[in-house]
Fold this protein.
Amino acid sequence: MVLQLHVWGPAFALPSIDAQCLATIAYCSLVLPKGSWELIPSSDLSVSPTGELPALQNGTVWVSRFRNIVDYLRQYSEGAWDLDRELDAPERADNLAFASFVESRGQPLIDLSLYVTSQNYYGNTSPAYGAFLQWPNQWILPPKLHSAAKARTEHLGVSSLDLQAMEEQRQREHSAAVAAGQIPKNFIQRPRDTVSSLLGRTAQQNQFRLEALTSEFFEPLEAMLGRKQYLLGADEDSQPRSLDSLLPVAAGCDALKAPRLVTYTERVRRQCFGEPAPSEAGHTFPALPWRSAERISVAAVGTTLLGTLADSTPFLREVRRNNRLKQVAESPDSGLSGTEKKAVSMYADASKRDMYVSIATVVAGAAALVGYMVHVGLLSVQTGAGVEEEEEDNGAVESFDSAFDPGSVGDFLGNTRGLV
Amino acid sequence: MPPKGQPAESSHARSFFTVPAPIKQLFDRFPLVTYPANDLPQRASPRHGNQLFVFTDAPGARRGRPSFNPQCLKWQAYLKFVGIDFEVVSSNNHASPTGALPFLLPGLPTEALLPIPSHKLQKWAIEQVHCEEEQQLNLRFEVYGSLLDHRIRNAWLQMLYLDHENFEAVARPSYVNPATTNSLVRAALGLQLQQAARDELLKTARCIDVADLEGDAGGAFEALSTLLGEDEHFFGRPNPGLFDASVFAYTHLVLDEEMGWKQNRLAQLLREHPNLVQHRDRLLKFF
């Protein structure tokens, strides 16, 4: 069975736009023998049952996320496909700690540079996604990823990189000034922010914060690398990835602060991905076992559209989330003990019940409203028996507002403007 | 009293603007008695030393017991380890100038009553007792710190807030019930807390996979246990420091019998590493 690795598509002269995917590709290219795996730039979250990329497919088994894939490869090959098998205990601990460090500190940096910084997002990231996504995903996914990245980096306090947020804040302040002072709008001086002055200022303000963040991230890695060839003497699994993906976007600070790290990154990149070959469609990586993604089917497009619609509808979103949680808990390979499984399922059931209660409340409320409207005569049902009564109503209401004709719900709704 | 021989209209005008005589007499006597200022309430009274505001209950605050919040406990433990005297005050997020506990009101100098938020506590402590800044001494500090702030914290959030039984048994009595006696507000607060924890976990993953979180935490404990090795304290230091405090904050709360956990998978994972358990027991003697 050939293993199939589904990832985000290539961008920025790298095999994939996503750091986790890059890490997984790098790991697979180091550990898996040639011909035993295929790389599919499917760029579609719906291919994987967990809704996450990277995802490794082996027949009917799906594994997603970098660490799970590493674990799965080790188990599947009974220890043969494992870059870490020769590490001793302290090295193993270091490996784990540095992996967690890269994940927790590197991810926000990537988020900041790729998504939150407005210039980068609109100038590079969004077009890059547009290049490999198919309709309708190219309109749905990038904004989703954008807002997720914003949420992840909120606590860092560098939101002023985000021009959109800046503009919102300015408007808020403006309307607050209007409300507080009761000053006519025309008299409030509009701060004259051109885009360039905005950029200049935010760049200065954020420079220090960003410097601190990047150096916090790179310094330990640089120190750890030292003069060695790899981070841990032996091949180390998780390190190549985030550095690699950071390289095109953070090259500035990277090069200034961590010269050894840059050379290391370049070398590992060559080793994992091979030399990029420029072609008319950007860079390609002939060393990797590409297989083109299947043409997206009409059914898949429909599913994506429906899924997006359902996820943005208040109640359906909860239903879907609970179902996902329950599925995860009850799947046989979740590794949960019996009681835990029961607890998680119970939780899912309970929140489902909560939701049904709230749906019932809303429905009951709506029914009561409609009932009331029927009762007071704002709404009436066209039936044969009710015609006379209705005509009476008509007369009464017409004297109140001649434009109002209580025939049907649509009419009522259409005429509310006239009533008000 | 108007002087004699004034024109008539002036006395007429005065009748509008002067205070009538009886009322003026009455007000001339004011204040009748000046009482001394009230004493401050008993619990607020003598502010001799530094006060650390943390999540804890009243008896815990009196006896200086460990806080039940890992962030608070970390700083409480750190200040104890470096030998700064302080008293614990039970508080909540709304009392804090930054919106998050812990914060510290320094006892000296008394005129500058600026509260110190948690991210400046270490700097303050270094100025007070001239202990060393441990981040500078070992490059692994930040790296292993990310295990605590990321993996163990996520598993902790899951275990405390999203496990239904634990939430009812541990989180609700400690975080929700002291805030109010109104059951409606309690219900709303509880839901808010759970939603906040869920949002936090969903920031990094698309769905919350309990097995994954616990596996991560298990790996993190293993790495920390290897880092500690046979030493008394982390990084082979003679005295416990900030990193020991950070680890202790989680290990103590996970192992503490008084917390009343219903499901405690983290404790099972932690007990596989006896040196971490001993480390916690050693540090508990400071309290």
